[in-house]
């Protein structure tokens, strides 16, 4: 029984993500990935030109998922402060539920890979920070946040909390939950109403 190309690509990405979930996993080779899937390396390369292209597939999944959720939050939550809070919680919850993706987002899984992949992490980080800025500007305009608050550094601090939570989770071998102190951290940063 043959597997359709789209299904096989999805299986390859899912297996790669599962392999990345192993705490302190060594560099994942295409040989190890092929062996885990009981395929030949040639079969992997029929679906992806390179391992970097496999990681690109993971990035596409990550971006599609988190920014779809961001758009849902923004469209249903009128308060900019609450938008920022909910987005931060969603991002750390996503990491908690997707350990392999967390290793990609934190850059941990990319250390020995094609350096252009690190650029994708930077793009996602920049988009996240831009989303926080937009929510905070909205909060200032609507009087939900003190007008004296500097939006750009606050958006950067929110982004750093998310990135730090992802990194700590990956480095701890999944022992330190990224959601552990998120509500208290967000309260410290966002409860600046007036």
Q: What does it look like?
A:
The structure is a single chain. The protein has a single domain, classed as Orthogonal Bundle (Tetracycline Repressor, domain 2). The protein is elongated. It has helices spanning 5-20, 30-37, 41-47, 51-76, 80-97, 99-105, 116-141, 151-171, 182-190. The chain is 71% helix and 0% strand. The chain has 9 helices and no strands. The protein is mainly alpha-helical and 194 residues long.
Please report the first level of CATH classification, the CATH class. Answer: Mainly Alpha
The shape is elongated
Task: Give helix and strand order, one letter per element, not per position.
Answer: HHHHHHHHH
CATH homologous superfamily grouping: Tetracycline Repressor, domain 2
| CATH architecture group name | Orthogonal Bundle
By helix and strand content, what is the structural category?
Answer: mainly alpha
**Segments where pLDDT lies below 50 for 5+ residues?**
none
- Cα end-to-end separation: 65 Å
What kind of assembly state do the chains in view correspond to? single chain
Strand content: under 5%
Q: What value does the Rg take, in angstroms? A: 19 Å
Helix content: over 70%
The total number of structural domains is 1
Count of alpha and pi helical runs = 9
Largest sheet: none
Average of per-residue pLDDT values: 91
The total beta strand count reads 0
Would you give the CATH topology? Tetracycline Repressor, domain 2
